[in-house]
Amino acid sequence: MPDDAAPPAVEAAGDVPVASGGGRLLWRDLPLGLRDELEAVAGGRVVQERSVSAGFSPGLASVLTFDDGSRLFVKAARTADEPVAANLHRAEAKVATRLPREVPAPRFAWGHGDGDWIALAFAVVDGHVPATPWDPDELDRVLATLVRLASVPGARAMRLPPTGPDFADMATGWRALRDDPDPRLAAVAPWAAAHLDALAEAERGALVACEGESFVHGDMRADNVLLTPEKVYVVDWPHASRGAAWLDLAMFLPSVVMQGVVDVCEPVTVSADPARRARGGAWAASTFAAHPLGGDVHPADLRSVVAGIAGYFLHSARKPAVPTIPRLRAFQRAQGVAALAWLEHLGL
Predict the structure, then answer these.
(1) Measured between alpha carbons, how far is 118 from 111 in angstroms, rounded to an integer?
(2) Contact in structure between 344 and 281 (CB atoms under 8 Å)
(3) pTM of the predicted structure, to 2 decimals
């Protein structure tokens, strides 16, 4: 990518990017005919709306209250405007209808599509997205939920695709950065700039490292979690796959390092100095090793997956901005730096 077409390599000092895509569609923004169809499926008229800001996918994401007092969380996207979001909704519909009850996900109510628009409805979870920087108790609850999720049987019976092929296709960022050098990489990630060949080799092991039979959510972050006093719910399942039990833990921890844990781990973003990055990487390494899913993972497998995550985010962050998701590239860049802090601690 030419330098004049690329986004800046460094964010404003101290900024932790917000996991939000910006403006959401509201109920009134949907075509009248579509609103009538969705109300017919729901069996009532919408009388109140609360738009949900967390998450990146553009489109509608609202808790709707109907005239009989019932409520649903409804998300919708139009293929002509947001083909990626619409296709993700279609993929999630295929997963949500078949998830075992043991999976801690909101109950799927119905889906509706007319060829251009796709809408999904779920039972409302009266919970909250975890605070960031993370509260240690909330983080412990989510980490415990990953253990329960990994123990749910049936991923193969559900015919979920294996995680490895798609992850391996994604985990090519270091090879792309090596073959198409970015002179700004040294400012963002000096250790990576000095080890591109080793990083490109490490990410090649991701296909084998991902093998397993567990449910893999594939996009674990704070904005894909809802907490109630009794339960932790994991939302948004379009990337569901079948793989190693520890993969969601490995994919989740870089986002936690980026956002920080109160009184435990300071946020690690692009502006973090080497000492803070080192502390964040050490925290991720110790947390993974102490977790029930992480203790027996082969070091080479872990390095391959973390290398794949870091390379994917840092390579993706230099792509052109997405107008409807203005914060995406900054979030990817910061999460890539956080994953790299962990990888540097692990060594190559």
Answers:
(1) 7
(2) yes
(3) 0.93
